[in-house]
Amino acid sequence: MKTRAAVLSEMGRPRPYAQTRPLVIEEVELDPPGPGEVIVRMRAAGLCHSDLSVINGDRPRPMPMIIGHEGAGEIVEVGAGVRDLRPGDHVVAAFVPCCGSCEPCTTGRPALCEPGFKANSTGTLLGGGQRMRRDGAIVHHHLGVSAFAEHAIMVRQSLIKVDDDLPFDEAAVFGCAVMTGVGAVTNTVQPQRGASIAVIGLGGVGLAALLGTRLLDAAIVIASDVSADKLALARRMGATHTIDAADPRAVEQIKDLTRGGVHYAFEMAGSVKAMELAYRATRRGGTTVTAGLPNPQHLFSIPQVGIVAEERTIKGSYLGSCDPARDIPRYIEMYRAGRLPIDRLLSEHIALEQLNEGFDRLADGKTVRQIVTL
Question: What confidence score (pLDDT) does residue 350 get?
Fold first, then answer.
């Protein structure tokens, strides 16, 4: 099958991307689906910082690659052994394909699937398959999804079936922003009733985390970012207080509001400065959670004694510590019940040809969740 896709051939091109055009719309060829594989007609895909970090080189990946890892679409063809999906089914992609048999998978932590991690790092499907070509040469898969394309080939383990009446643009954000943000709050940690919470960084994942706090009986929810527009949106989405992250007194303001710091701080910007703010704003005995993905060379440093003397906890959260097969349907039910209004994360709808301009807006912090409609 031939299809159109946004191909990244070189990382690290300078901005503005509207001029340097790192993503080029090209015709690529998909192999027929092998055993356990599926071809999806992509209908919607979200622009995420994890995609941007491949474009700018912060997260090195083999090139060339069709990026995009947050998407939804419709099944058009299934390979041998796929018995529970059929053409016409609507699906959401999960960016960690879970093998189901490694140690993390069998102990309830599929987000840490070891074969899934290896496949994602090397640009293959789960099991090592590579099913995309350009002029006869291999094009790598991005996190087993490669959503910025009219068609994508994925393994069955990357897909969650959803109801046909859920709009594709809304369905797409459950595959990353919602799982990562809401999951960090409800899975990675489970704040007690009456806790104080801060969310640092209000992109799609951060605002999803803010929505996740609405599922709790939190006393104080503080949202922090450098964008006045995002702070205003956070107030409309339920934050009890907002703090300008660029204000030199930001930590002091959070401590004043909470009598010593928050019980839980969530760093969602993928920035060492944001992590430092989150850690310093966490009270003694509190927990600082990070779901951001900075450049691997960037280091976060703290006095070791504080971990002991203040009984502090630092936790990482990947994929929101989710089990996609369990949590995506659960979060969709919450959305339908009005408890998780994720449609408020959607900012703009753009065409595949507008991806470079879209990533400029994302890098500038001028948008929340742009959706490519396909």
Answer: 98
Relative to beta strand 262-267, strand 282-290 is parallel
Domain spans in the chain, listed from the N-terminal domain onward? 2-165+341-373, 179-318
DSSP 185-213: IIII--PPTT-EEEEE--SHHHHHHHHHH
Q: Which residues of 40-58 are buried (b: 16+ CB within 10 A; e: fewer)?
A: bbbbbbbbbbbbbbbbbeb
State which H helix or E strand residue 279 sits in.
helix 272-280
Second-level CATH architecture of 2-165+341-373: Alpha-Beta Complex (3.90)
Q: With contact defined as beta carbons under 8 Å apart, do 84 and 160 qualify?
A: no
pLDDT bin (cut points 50, 70, 90) of residue 374 is very high
Cis peptide preceding 64, ω within 30 of 0:
yes
In this predicted model, what pLDDT tens digit does every residue of 273-330 receive, in sequence order? 999 999 999 999 999 999 999 999 999 999 999 999 999 999 999 999 999 999 999 9
